[in-house]
Amino acid sequence: ARNDNNVSPYTTYAPNPDGPGWVGVDAVGRIFKINTDGSVVTIAGRKTKRDVVPYYTRDTSVTDAQRQALQVEFIGNFEGGVKFNGPGDLAYDPRNPKILYVADTYNFRIAKVDFTSGTPQITTYAGAPGVAGATDGPALSARFKEPTSIAVASDGRVFVADLGNDNIRVIAPNGGTVTTLA
């Protein structure tokens, strides 16, 4: 329902390449579509279950793990079990509207979400989950420190604003290497 959207104010949006509406990523770690009628559909990442009575957040007898097990489900296959951690931005690959890149800020990586099959496949495109740094080189050996913004050029180069390192990084098309641009 329109009043049950739960869209965070900490959300970044991109036009939906498959039709009208928008696709967003929010800081709690979900990717969702906003349709033109105002409805919201989670398409990857964290989703709050709406068919259970939630625990009261101030009930200290319930752990966060118990609360999450009851109230949260995850949509998609996450390589290595690495869920989004404070993602800051998203951008579609203009060469393939089924590929989405996410600046996964507090995982210090760029994630790739592949919507080609029925279930989204979330993998690390560049960086290493949980390992911060400022290293250029092969994409999976490169290190980021708080990548917060992302854009993809028509040739597939991915530009990343790496806030923690105060620089702009470039990932070569098809995930080859990471270099510092500025």
In summary, what is this structure?
With 182 residues, the chain is mainly beta.
Protein described:
The protein is mostly beta strands. The protein has 1 helix and 15 strands, in the order ββββαβββββββββββ. It has one helix at 64-71, and strands spanning 11-15, 22-26, 30-34, 40-48, 72-75, 77-78, 89-93, 96-104, 109-114, 121-127, 137-138, 147-152, 158-162, 167-171, 177-180. The strands form 3 sheets. Strands 1-2-3-4-5 form a 5-stranded antiparallel β-sheet. The longest helix is centred in the middle third of the chain and has 8 residues, at 64-71.
Unreliable residue stretches: none
The rounded distance between the terminal residues' Cα atoms is: 45 Å
Radius of gyration: 17 Å
Helix proportion of residues, in percent? under 10%
Shape: globular
The biggest beta sheet reads: 5 strands, antiparallel
How many H/I helices?
1
Number of strands: 15
Q: What is the arithmetic mean of pLDDT? A: 92
- The strand line-up of the biggest sheet is 1-2-3-4-5
Give the DSSP E fraction (strand runs of 2 or more residues).
35-45%
Structural class assignment: mainly beta
Order of helices and strands: EEEEHEEEEEEEEEEE
Oligomer status = single chain
Summarize this structure as a short list of keywords or feature phrases.
182 residues, mainly beta, 4% helix, 43% strand
Sequence-ordered SSE layout with sheet pairings:
Elements lengths: L10 E5 L6 E5 L3 E5 L5 E9 L15 H8 E4 L1 E2 L10 E5 L2 E9 L4 E6 L6 E7 L9 E2 L8 E6 L5 E5 L4 E5 L5 E4 L2
Parallel strand pairs: 6-10
Antiparallel strand pairs: 1-2, 2-3, 3-4, 4-5, 7-8, 8-9, 9-10, 11-15, 12-13, 13-14, 14-15
